[in-house]
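job 3f2a | input accepted
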Amino acid sequence: MKRFCASHVEKLNNGTLERQAQKLVEHLNECDLCPHMCKINRLEDKVGFCGATADVEIASYGPHFGEESVLVGFGGSGLSLLLRLQQRMG
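job 3f2a | predicted structure (90 res):
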Protein backbone atom coordinates (compact mmCIF):
# COMPACT_ATOMS: atom_id res chain seq x y z
CA MET A 1 0.00 0.00 0.00
CA LYS A 2 1.30 3.44 -0.95
CA ARG A 3 1.82 5.75 2.01
CA PHE A 4 -0.32 8.92 1.94
CA CYS A 5 1.47 12.14 1.16
CA ALA A 6 -0.31 15.50 1.01
CA SER A 7 -0.33 16.97 -2.49
CA HIS A 8 1.51 20.14 -1.45
CA VAL A 9 4.34 18.04 -0.01
CA GLU A 10 4.54 16.02 -3.25
CA LYS A 11 4.66 19.26 -5.24
CA LEU A 12 7.44 20.59 -3.03
CA ASN A 13 9.46 17.39 -3.42
CA ASN A 14 9.07 17.04 -7.19
CA GLY A 15 9.67 20.70 -8.09
CA THR A 16 6.10 21.46 -9.17
CA LEU A 17 5.61 24.02 -6.39
CA GLU A 18 8.70 25.95 -7.52
CA ARG A 19 7.47 25.98 -11.14
CA GLN A 20 4.04 27.21 -10.05
CA ALA A 21 5.63 29.99 -7.98
CA GLN A 22 7.68 31.06 -11.00
CA LYS A 23 4.50 31.23 -13.11
CA LEU A 24 2.98 33.56 -10.52
CA VAL A 25 6.03 35.83 -10.69
CA GLU A 26 5.73 35.88 -14.49
CA HIS A 27 2.15 37.15 -14.12
CA LEU A 28 3.52 40.13 -12.17
CA ASN A 29 5.43 41.33 -15.27
CA GLU A 30 2.13 42.13 -17.00
CA CYS A 31 -0.32 41.74 -14.16
CA ASP A 32 -3.51 39.83 -14.85
CA LEU A 33 -4.19 38.52 -11.34
CA CYS A 34 -7.49 40.34 -10.88
CA PRO A 35 -10.38 40.96 -13.28
CA HIS A 36 -9.04 44.43 -14.16
CA MET A 37 -6.06 42.83 -15.99
CA CYS A 38 -4.24 46.19 -16.02
CA LYS A 39 -0.98 44.63 -17.34
CA ILE A 40 1.11 46.87 -15.06
CA ASN A 41 4.64 45.63 -14.31
CA ARG A 42 4.53 45.15 -10.56
CA LEU A 43 8.14 43.99 -10.51
CA GLU A 44 9.10 47.63 -11.24
CA ASP A 45 7.34 48.74 -8.02
CA LYS A 46 4.30 49.97 -9.92
CA VAL A 47 0.84 49.71 -8.38
CA GLY A 48 -1.96 48.14 -10.38
CA PHE A 49 -5.51 49.40 -10.83
CA CYS A 50 -6.65 47.26 -7.90
CA GLY A 51 -4.11 48.87 -5.57
CA ALA A 52 -1.90 45.83 -5.07
CA THR A 53 1.88 45.77 -5.43
CA ALA A 54 4.33 42.95 -6.18
CA ASP A 55 4.12 41.92 -2.52
CA VAL A 56 1.28 39.49 -3.09
CA GLU A 57 0.11 37.81 0.11
CA ILE A 58 -2.21 34.85 0.45
CA ALA A 59 -5.18 35.73 2.67
CA SER A 60 -6.58 32.20 2.74
CA TYR A 61 -6.64 28.98 0.77
CA GLY A 62 -8.38 25.66 0.87
CA PRO A 63 -10.77 23.30 -0.87
CA HIS A 64 -13.80 24.85 -2.54
CA PHE A 65 -16.99 22.82 -2.89
CA GLY A 66 -19.30 25.52 -4.25
CA GLU A 67 -19.17 24.46 -7.91
CA GLU A 68 -20.73 21.71 -10.00
CA SER A 69 -19.68 18.23 -8.89
CA VAL A 70 -17.73 17.60 -12.10
CA LEU A 71 -15.47 20.57 -11.25
CA VAL A 72 -15.19 19.87 -7.53
CA GLY A 73 -14.30 16.16 -7.61
CA PHE A 74 -13.61 14.51 -4.26
CA GLY A 75 -11.29 17.06 -2.69
CA GLY A 76 -12.69 20.38 -3.86
CA SER A 77 -11.62 22.58 -6.74
CA GLY A 78 -9.26 24.72 -4.67
CA LEU A 79 -9.54 28.39 -3.78
CA SER A 80 -6.88 31.00 -3.05
CA LEU A 81 -7.75 34.50 -1.91
CA LEU A 82 -5.11 37.18 -2.28
CA LEU A 83 -4.74 39.91 0.34
CA ARG A 84 -4.86 43.58 -0.68
CA LEU A 85 -6.51 43.07 -4.06
CA GLN A 86 -9.11 45.78 -3.81
CA GLN A 87 -11.92 45.02 -6.20
CA ARG A 88 -12.37 48.64 -7.28
CA MET A 89 -15.12 49.41 -9.70
CA GLY A 90 -13.71 51.08 -12.80
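job 3f2a | The longest strand covers residues 57-62.
job 3f2a | closed
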